[in-house]
Amino acid sequence: MVLQYCEDNDINALADILSEAGCEYAAKNILNQMNDAGEFDAAVAIFIAEALKNSVSIPRTLYDDIISCYSLNPLDMDYCPRMFNGMKQLEENKLVK
After folding, report:
1. Rounded to 5°, angle at Cα 13 from 4 and 47
2. What does pTM read for this prediction?
3. Which of 27, 58, 60, 82 lies 20 to 30 A from 16 at CA?
4. pLDDT of 68-88, one tens digit each?
5. CA 22 – CA 82 distance, rounded (Å)
6. CA dist 38 to 4, 16, 41, 92, Å?
């Protein structure tokens, strides 16, 4: 399957990880979220769900880049406990390598 990459390197990397794990439909869906709607959070949420469902690991550096986009501090502009906690689930399930 040929993926139509977006301008965000982190999202492209997530799509590559899923594609290599055999989750081509989810990889394409991630890129569609960014290319069609500019929905970074939706793309990351799709990755989290697929990674947990299929035990797909994510490199530590990519994980750190993405989790840094979210905060648990309600005063922060990036406050998003749902997304932060979703990313932490990857670590708790030992999917961060």
Report:
1. 90
2. 0.93
3. 82
4. 999 999 999 889 999 999 999
5. 26
6. 14, 18, 9, 28
Choose among 39, 52, 54, 20: nearest CA to 29: 39
Instruction: Name the residue type at position 1.
Output: M
What is the token pair recorded at 37?
A: 């709607």
Ramachandran region, residue 69 (left: φ > 0; alpha: ψ -120 to 50; beta: rest):
alpha
| Helix 9-20 vs helix 24-37: crossing angle, to nearest 10 | 160
What average pLDDT values come out for the chain (97 residues) when binned by 10 residues? 83 96 96 92 97 98 96 92 96 97
Which contacts qualify for 76-82: CB closer than 8 Å, 24 or more apart? 80/41
The 8-class DSSP code of residue 93 comes to: T
What is the DSSP code (8-state) at residue 68? T
